[in-house]
Amino acid sequence: MKEKDAYIENKDHPLILYIEKDDNTYGPILSGAVSSKDYIDDFRTKFKHLEEAIIAKVRSGETSMIYYYMMLQELTPAELANRIGISKSKVEKHFQVKYFKKASLETIHKYAEVFNVPVANLFQLILTKEDNLWKAHYVENEAVIDNHFISQHKTENPFIVITTIEEKKS
Amino acid sequence: MTPIPYQHKMAAHCETGTVSGLLNYNGLPLTEPMVFGIASGIFFGYMKMKSFNFPAFFVRTRPGDIRKKISKRLGIDFYVKSFKKPEEAQRELDQLLEKNIPVVVKVDFFYMNYLAPWMRVHNNAHFITVIGKENSNYYVSDCYHSEVAELDAETMSKARFAGGMESPKGFMYYPVRIPKEIDYERNIITGIRKAAYNMLKIPIPFLGIKGIRLFSEKVTGWPKLARDMEHLSHEIMRINVLLEDQGTGGGGFRFMYATFLRQASEMLGNEKLLEFSKRMMQIGNDWRSVSVCAIRMNKDKDFSEERFKELSALIGNCAVAEKAFFTDIYQFAKHYGK
Fold first, then answer.
1. Residue B262, SS3 per DSSP
2. CB B193 within 8 A of CB B123
3. Looking at CA atoms only, how far is residue A158 from chain B in angstroms?
4. B248 close to B12: Cβ distance less than 8 angstroms
5. Which of A26, A34, A82 has the CB atom closest to B262's CB atom?
6. pLDDT digits over B219-277, tens only?
């Protein structure tokens, strides 16, 4: 591939490409990812639709937050079971609220570790309204709403997360 | 402590990049494509696994094989260790950093929180070089990040001990002995011969050229496997990501392999290798056409039978070109010097 055809300007997602340079030598250039440059909105829209569909199921009690995080993090029941150290059928049972409530706190803590969210987030959804749309948040996100920062902070206690709402000083 | 004066450099791929980076730091100037080529990194496979939501393909050998092959072929000794307990893994890493030894560790990519959230997926086959620690933060040289990053100790531990397929188990390595004399000629030819063997002769129906043919055949059935149109569109777009954007150097590692053959041609003064490198560059372009087709399908939201046939035909072309290429280069390597 020629250098002029290869280069993509994307400082948010730089990557190295090996190409045929203008002097006919082969070697690396710093380029950027196509997928995140032109299709990131498309990607986000797809995931937003998926998220909305699962949130509706979570609200109606049809499924648990285990299913929510598993789907959004593109894990399979088999891979999740492997990471938690329980059987696949048990993971699939935990998708259902009636079985999820029987899960031990230790297992729930393991789920939270894999998903990298506070344990509390397996029992709650934090939604902020942005552009008149409700948006769910992970712990790492910091949301700004009505001139307030909303964020979650881990503590030394694995079962406690502190959610702060802080006035944004302009 | 301040970071070890290790020259952070982006690379196309994490494993070839970390191996090349550590060898360069320890006095052996070996480029990323040369590491890839000598280690016979080029490959192909198409399969459906329980760990994946959808059929997946891969364009290189198994994670970890690059370092193993480089060690075996070039006679480089690596200190290699896995752990059962995270505390022990952290203690040993800290001790090595205290001695100013940069160490490569295997991690789950999902926890690399210095990268954008949309880039991060659960993948236990990511390699980073740890080059220092200050308070409870590690300095990290990640080939996919433009500068030295920081990762807190808790996250590092979580990333090194993620469970699941290819679980890292705290795996770490660094070179301890590099031979003074290396027979590049023999090892380049061995690397080429083994890569061609893997592509042509492994008797498993989803690996090598057979894997590319299987991909070409099965991709037309993808609409039946997706849960809805958006899922199908996501998986089609992933073809581009796996070939171009997820650390391959472009064209599913084929451009990097072409660069290896070019460097090998210059090192050995062999014109035939130069011809092979040009052919491989063209094969990379063929794979690029597959990516472009996938992008267009996603852009046009056209998932008709005709478009899938077009995609299938483009993948089929790659199978034909690679079959001819690896047959020829296998004969070249087998009879080299005779």
1. helix
2. no
3. 12
4. yes
5. A26
6. 999 999 999 999 999 999 999 999 998 899 999 999 999 999 999 999 999 999 999 99
User: For residue B263, what are the contacts with CB-CB under 8 A and spacing of at least 6?
Assistant: A26, B31, B33, B34, B37
The DSSP code for B187 is H
Indicate yes or no: CB of B247 within 8 angstroms of CB of A15.
yes
Which residues, 6 or more positions from A128, have their beta carbon under 8 angstroms from its beta carbon?
A: A134, A135, A137, A143, A145, A150
ipTM score of complex: 0.92
Query: B47, B43, B52: which is closest to B218 by C-alpha?
Result: B47
From B181, B338, B159, B189, select the one nearest B261 (Cα to Cα): B189
| Closest chain A residue by Cα to residue B52 | A76
Q: Choose the closest CB to B255 out of A18, A33, A83.
A: A18
Q: Hey, which bits of B84-192 come out as E strands?
A: 103-107, 126-134, 137-141, 149-152, 172-177
Distance from CA of A69 to the nearest CA of B (A): 12
User: What stretch of H or E contains A77?
Assistant: helix A77-84
pTM (2 d.p.):
0.92
CB contacts, 8 Å: A140 with chain B: 113, 117
DSSP secondary structure code for residue B228 in this structure: S
